[in-house]
Amino acid sequence: MVLLIMWPLLTAHSPPPPSTITTTTITTTTIPDDPSQTKQSASHRLRLPPVLKEVVQHDKEVMSEMAGVVRERLNKLRQGRGVTDAALLDQARAEFEELHAKKLQEDKDAAAAVAVQRVNPKGVSTGKDSRRGFIVLGMHRSGTSMLSGLLVTSCGYNVGDHLIESAADNEKGFFERVDIVLQNDEFLRRQNAYWAANVINYDWEQALRDKEDGVAEFEENGRPGLEFLNNPANIPWLQKDPRMCITLKTWLQLMNSEPAIVFTYRHPMEVAMSLKKREQSFTLEHGLRLWIIYNMRAIQNSNGLCIVYSSNDKILADPMIEVQRISDELTTRCHVPPPPYKLQKEDVDKFIDPNLQHNKNRRAQEEKEENREVIATYNDGKCIVHSYKTETEEGSDERKRETELYGWAMKIFCDLESGKAYEDNYKWPDLPK
């Protein structure tokens, strides 16, 4: 393409080159007023190969726009003495590449603007205080997949592609990007942790150093995931991975705009029992400890961001009202561009598993029927902590740790219910590392 623009200019009369440089005599031609004619006649005389002819045809508009600018620059360059055709071509190529790169960037920006208009037709602010998307935070087995699924499939928030496939324990999908999940695993692995072990010791600043030093691999998974989050054409996006409760601060340093947060939680014993059922090596103690750490880090790491709070109980109680409220608050309070659609009842009915509500009611019914001991009350008696069933041996060290963690978890749960846990000076338990 560079040759096609330069050819008529290179054939113009120029000072003879130094005798030490071998040159080729080029027949003089005249530059017509229409650059496209130059391109056509030059391509004919040069007998271009088919591939280059296709490039000529494809880039006709770009060439016409740039040829005049390049021609003027080259005429000025040739006014100096001792400028050879080879040197002139090198300078011309650099000039053209610079102009072409600028044009490509302008086209890319224009396409992004069109995409923003498509997903944000109402013109909701996308300035300094706006947010391009949001991150769903919550402990594993806490209903984050159900919530994200409703927001994606019914409202139309953009989660991208290459998602983790559904599984027996989550038949309707996880709505998690494979690349970001794998990158979170990489950040954790470099600090001798993974989603279910040692997460309390995760250091977000160390993870950034590991990335910069090449200790933590980033290009294969982190780069495409980050590009999705940073691309304005993807708004309004949704990112969900429970590991983000732990790694959020690392990602905040890499993203080029601040996200909003949707935080949700579930009863700690329901989560611990679900993990114990899915992960054969899990104990109630392990599940309760993880529940505390994930919820604690989610709230601590998102401090200062625009947060919409919810819970698994609220979503199950009235999914239409609660999920629509979440979407509305993201738009009106956090200034995330509105999704393409409003939540539809038929989508909710297809997505919500009635067994989830049944299991929740069964736990409450069992506590009542079995006349379990009340061991604590919070929130003016509105949040009651009952004793629980356990298989651990009475008086054992394991039983003592399990009971202590259950007490802490239930207090935090009640404080989440009342909103106390969201206060800046909230006192979290000092868990052993």
In short:
The chain is mainly alpha-helical and 433 residues long.
How far apart are the termini? 63 Å
Calculate the mean pLDDT score and round it: 80
Outline the biggest β-sheet.
4 strands, parallel
By CATH reckoning, the class of the largest domain would read: Alpha Beta
Computed Rg: 31 Å
How would you characterize this protein structure?
The model is unreliable at 1-56 and 111-128 (pLDDT under 50). The protein folds into two domains: 2-119, no CATH class; 133-353, Rossmann fold, CATH 3.40.50. A four-stranded parallel sheet has the order 2-1-3-4, with helices on one face. The protein is built from 17 helices and six strands. It has 433 residues and is mainly α. It is globular, with a radius of gyration of 31 Å. A hairpin with a 4-residue loop joins strand 5 and strand 6 (383-386).
Short key terms for the protein model shown above:
single chain, 433 residues, 4-stranded parallel beta sheet, 17 helices, 6% strand
List the helices and strands and how they pair.
Blueprint (H helix, E strand, L loop, with lengths): L1 H9 L24 H12 L3 H9 L1 H19 L6 H35 L13 E5 L6 H12 L22 H12 L14 H10 L8 H9 L6 E4 L3 H11 L5 E4 L4 H11 L5 H18 L5 E3 L2 H6 L1 H14 L12 H7 L2 H16 L4 E5 L4 E4 L10 H22 L15
Parallel strand pairs: 1-2, 1-3, 3-4
Antiparallel strand pairs: 5-6
Helix pairs in contact: 1-2, 1-5, 4-5, 7-9, 8-10, 10-12, 11-12, 12-17
